[in-house]
RNA sequence: GCCGAAAUGGCGGAACUGGUAGACGCGCUGGACUCAAAAUCCAGUGACCCUAAAAGUCGUGUGGGUUCGAGUCCCACUUUCGGCACCA
């Protein structure tokens, strides 16, 4: 078999050159062919390069793209880079290497790795977000958002000029617009406003607008932190204090689109799990606003509740410490406590504010129906961000209110009778109302409607739907991002740049340290920042700006008249298949849908949703091998490493787990995983700070020189993330060099279903390597010459081939790519067994395999005398008749338990089967003379005899 | 805490709408080739019972249920992994 070796390195080199020179993956312009758009999620080019986990999705989408191409579709299968981002900026601060330089290097490295895997991208369409030709249009979309508002009666975005017209003629009265707060003013008032006042007022409506946001500010680092950069109230880096700080920030009014983002999800072919995640993020809840009069008069207190049915169970009201009315209520001696609570609320992250802490304001509100005096409290667990920042406390039917009431001895009233319903907890939404006047006897859902109706009738409230989703912060105090194309004049009015002034290029800066007072590093670019009209905005756009519309740019990547031409947009429309990881499940997908809907409202794109079908790929995990280091108290004379085999002799708290480089470990990921003396030596060279350490196992202890030659230190194995920090990263380049790209691709697919996470184990790759060798050997005779016979194939050969075509075609369409590889193995094993060298069998098989193994199949295609590329040939079809077997294997069961396999001709009828089966000696034995009660026969499937 | 997904040999996994559990591959065992090894090829490989074969028994996280028949459907639970988190 081994006469001719497949030289993967030379073949892959030649193929890459050929594909490149013939531009076979170039997507032609618009055509009459049906289109198919296969997209991978935009990678951020990190300095570490790709590891074997990344390409899982890329290979899957590439297989689909190649199949569609061979099926005659016009395929768009592009790749590019999300190139702005914090890591490059931090790297620059550490090393002095400018982000533009490191980013370019990282991109080149990524591209080379992707090309090596044989992915069929049209690189002429590459998109890189940090290039001015691209971010010009990111800035352009931002300006469109700035110039539009969301009209709630038209249910779409409209130009802000329309809104201004309405203000001029009727003030705010006839306006239906999404806004930050509901404002009331007359046309006269509007017309009398200064430019600055109008500018401020319009910010209440614009889809891109400025507002004061509370951000996590870390004074020591001089920067704003993300939620996940904070641990236990202090910064993860350095452990410095973090506080909430109000800052003027740009934001996008994504909340205007909440309902459409929710509703349109119904039409998408996304997994239910993913849709649920997005639904939870949007978090729609129906409830109502209720006004409570304060006993002392003055402003009403507005609370929001999703359980207005429990209004007769309310025994107190509670406000967030930050609530604007709190100051008024706490005027005097309580002010000090209020300020303390505000401070407390300020430092603790929202997620930590769950304690039943608070104080009584000494003031009372009046119940809208009973006029009962309800005490008003300030409570830590009430958040200003949600609803109205005030709640009615119903301790009988809300667990947090219950805890609060118990702590402060407030009355707890039950107003729902749960008897007759399975009780889970007091918050459940079933039961019958009691002690509730006009609600008595109603069940919960009717009572909610009735309560809202009565409140509206009494002018004491109104039905209101709220969404958990918040408007998205759009300002970043960073250098490496798109500049925001806005200038502020002397009065502080915002002046958007004109389209003709785009792109607003990012100036070159060498010092990227944060500016003073929470400003972006760009504030140091004085010359750039100062314009005749005023001072430029120095904040930049966040990471998600560039990635929210990149999929549109691929349709027409070099257009300098618009972000993409109308023709290209109407031909390509939307993404047919989008593959990527769950880490983007909420953020990126939500923002992209929002931008897309906005562009749809403006008539720029033909679809209201960008991604028709979406598949989340699982993670490829790595093996983490660690050694145990015994923590020494005081000043340790010597470090002691403990074999995992004796680790249980020491208290777990005394052992530190140190990840060790996977290459040093023998029998990794088995119970026998260990470091031999040679491994220990490598370990000490790698971590010289442990030189002279002692190693201890069940037999011996000592430093390296003292240990017996057969000494082994057992390591601790677990499955986890593949990451630099665990020293377990497997680089695809290394695998490809040893086994070839085809083998790498097929093995990644063979590992398991695409959506599932699974561990990488390089050992298993041998099976795929053997398979490819066997496949290759089919084309060579015993003398080692390429040899195919051109004659009528046998029925057996045809059946083997057509069964494989059917299985693989169907499984690619359902993205079950692991079973495709099995099908190829079965087919090749079978063809080998029957010594097939038939051209009419082996070449269709080769075309079938081309999407999986693009290199070796191209090579065979050339050897068999073809001029063009196999990837531009046609995809094979199957003949159903040829896939069928001529006989049926019936499992015969007695009482559902299989006892015998009966092979009969397919032509046999049902009656013949029924009578025939009882005549079988094997069955007679089981019947023991008795008559069967029943025979269940599923034609072509099975026979079951009930006795 | 809430939401979602999953659990099948030593390992990765297969099994379409309930119908032969363990396809395919890794690993392991034995054999062939070889002076020997590697590579390659052939055979075996869920557990139990048995000298062996045949036959049998048990087996898809746990406990129940529906059904002629359950990995697949229903109920309860356990564990693991993801996501979100005081959403009033």
Description:
By secondary structure, the chain is of the alpha+beta class. It has seven domains: 8-141 and 544-617, Rossmann fold (3-Layer(aba) Sandwich); 153-205, no CATH class; 211-252, no CATH class; 284-467, Valyl/Leucyl/Isoleucyl-tRNA synthetase, editing domain (Isoleucyl-tRNA Synthetase, domain 2, Alpha-Beta Complex), CATH 3.90.740.10; 620-720, no CATH class; 732-872, Isoleucyl-tRNA Synthetase, Domain 1; 887-946, Ubiquitin-like (UB roll). It contains 30 helices and 38 strands. Strands 10, 11, 12, 13, 14, 15 and 18 form a seven-stranded mixed sheet that branches. A hairpin with a 3-residue loop joins strand 37 and strand 38. Helix 21 packs across helix 22 and helix 26 runs antiparallel to helix 27. The chain is globular, with a radius of gyration of 35 Å. The structure holds one RNA strand of 88 nucleotides.
């Amino acid at each position: 078999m081994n006469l001719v070796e497949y030289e993967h390195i030379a073949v892959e080199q030649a193929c890459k050159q050929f594909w490149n020179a013939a531009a076979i993956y170039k997507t032609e312009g618009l055509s009459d062919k049906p289109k198919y758009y296969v997209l991978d999620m935009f990678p951020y080019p990190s300095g570490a390069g790709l590891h074997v986990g990344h390409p899982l999705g890329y290979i899957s989408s590439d297989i689909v793209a190649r199949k569609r191409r061979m099926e005659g579709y016009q395929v768009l299968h592009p790749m590019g880079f999300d190139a702005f981002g914090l890591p490059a900026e931090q790297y620059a601060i550490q090393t002095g290497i400018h982000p533009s330089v490191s980013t370019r290097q990282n991109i080149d490295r990524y591209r080379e790795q992707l090309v090596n895997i044989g992915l069929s991208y049209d690189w002429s369409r590459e998109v890189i977000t940090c290039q001015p030709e691209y971010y010009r249009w990111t800035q352009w979309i931002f300006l469109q958002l700035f110039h539009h508002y969301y009209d709630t009666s038209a249910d779409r975005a409209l130009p802000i000029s329309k809104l201004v017209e309405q203000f001029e003629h009727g003030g705010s009265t006839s306006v239906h617009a999404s806004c930050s707060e509901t404002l009331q003013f007359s046309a006269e008032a509007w017309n009398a406003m200064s430019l600055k006042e109008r500018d401020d007022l319009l910010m209440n409506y614009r889809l891109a607008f400025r507002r004061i946001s509370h951000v996590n500010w870390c004074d020591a680092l001089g920067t704003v932190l993300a939620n996940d950069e904070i641990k236990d109230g202090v910064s993860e880096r350095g452990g410095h204090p973090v506080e909430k700080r109000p800052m003027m920030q740009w934001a996008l009014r994504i909340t205007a689109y909440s309902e459409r983002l929710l509703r349109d999800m119904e039409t998408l072919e996304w997994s239910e799990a993913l849709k649920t995640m997005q639904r939870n993020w949007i978090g729609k809840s129906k409830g109502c606003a209720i006004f409570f009069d304060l006993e002392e008069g003055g402003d009403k207190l507005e609370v929001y509740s999703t359980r207005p049915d429990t209004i007769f169970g309310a025994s107190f009201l509670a406000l967030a410490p930050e609530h604007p009315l709190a100051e008024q209520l706490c005027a005097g001696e309580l002010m000090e406590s209020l300020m303390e609570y505000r401070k407390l609320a300020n430092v603790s992250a929202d997620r930590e504010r769950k304690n039943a802490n608070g104080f009584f304001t000494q003031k009372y509100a009046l119940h809208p129906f009973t006029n009962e005096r309800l005490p008003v409290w300030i409570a830590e667990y009430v958040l200003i961000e949600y609803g109205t920042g005030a709640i009615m406390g119903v301790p009988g039917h809300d667990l947090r209110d219950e805890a609060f009431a118990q702590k402060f001895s407030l009355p707890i009233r039950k107003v729902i009778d749960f008897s007759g319903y399975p009780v889970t907890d007091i918050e459940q939404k079933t039961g019958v109302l009691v002690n509730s006047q006009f609600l008595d006897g109603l069940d919960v859902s009717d009572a909610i409607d009735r309560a809202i109706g009565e409140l509206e009738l009494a002018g004491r409230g109104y039905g209101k739907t709220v969404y958990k989703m918040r408007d998205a912060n759009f300002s970043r105090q960073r250098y490496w991002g798109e500049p925001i194309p806005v200038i502020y004049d002397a009065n502080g009015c915002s002046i958007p740049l004109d389209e003709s002034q785009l792109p607003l290029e990012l100036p070159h800066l060498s010092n990227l340290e944060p500016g003073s007072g929470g400003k972006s590093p760009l504030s140091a670019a004085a010359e750039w920042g100062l314009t005749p009209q005023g001072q430029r905005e120095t904040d930049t756009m966040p990471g998600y700006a560039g990635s929210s519309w990149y999929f549109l740019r691929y349709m027409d990547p070099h257009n300098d008249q618009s972000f993409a031409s109308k023709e290209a947009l109407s031909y390509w429309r939307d993404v047919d298949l989008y593959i990527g990881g769950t880490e983007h499940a909420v953020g990126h997908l939500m923002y992209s849908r929002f931008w897309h809907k906005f562009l749809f409202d403006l008539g720029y794109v033909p679809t209201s949703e960008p991604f028709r079908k979406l598949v989340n790929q699982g993670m490829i995990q790595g093996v983490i091998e660690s050694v145990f280091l015994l923590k020494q108290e005081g000043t340790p004379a010597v470090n002691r490493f403990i074999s995992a085999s004796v680790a249980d002799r020491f208290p777990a708290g005394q052992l530190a787990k140190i990840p060790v480089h996977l290459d040093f470990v023998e029998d990794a990921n088995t119970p026998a995983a260990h470091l031999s003396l040679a491994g220990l030596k490598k370990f000490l060279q790698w971590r010289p700070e442990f030189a002279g350490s002692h190693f201890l196992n069940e037999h011996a202890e000592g430093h390296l020189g003292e240990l017996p030659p057969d000494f082994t230190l057992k390591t601790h194995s677990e499955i986890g993330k593949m990451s630099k920090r665990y020293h377990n990263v497997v680089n695809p380049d290394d695998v490809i060099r040893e086994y070839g790209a085809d083998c790498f691709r097929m093995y990644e697919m063979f590992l398991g279903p695409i959506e599932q996470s699974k561990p990488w184990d390089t050992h298993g790759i041998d099976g795929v390597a053997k398979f490819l060798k066997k496949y290759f050997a089919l084309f060579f005779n015993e003398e080692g010459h390429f040899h195919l016979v051109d004659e009528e194939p046998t029925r057996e050969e045809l059946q083997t081939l057509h069964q494989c075509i059917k299985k693989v075609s169907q499984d690619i369409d359902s993205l079950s790519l692991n079973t495709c590889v099995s099908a190829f193995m079965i087919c090749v094993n079978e063809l080998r067994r029957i010594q097939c060298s038939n051209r009419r069998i082996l070449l269709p098989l080769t075309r079938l395999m081309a999407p999986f193994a693009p290199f070796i199949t191209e090579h065979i295609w050339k050897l068999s005398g073809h001029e063009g590329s196999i990837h531009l040939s046609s995809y094979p079809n199957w003949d159903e008749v040829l896939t069928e077997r001529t006989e049926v294997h019936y499992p015969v069961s007695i009482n559902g338990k299989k006892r015998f396999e009966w092979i009969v001709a397919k032509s046999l009828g049902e009656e013949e089967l029924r009578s025939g089966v009882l005549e079988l000696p094997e069955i007679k034995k089981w019947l023991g003379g008795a008559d069967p009660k029943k025979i269940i026969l599923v034609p072509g499937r099975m026979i079951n005899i009930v006795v």
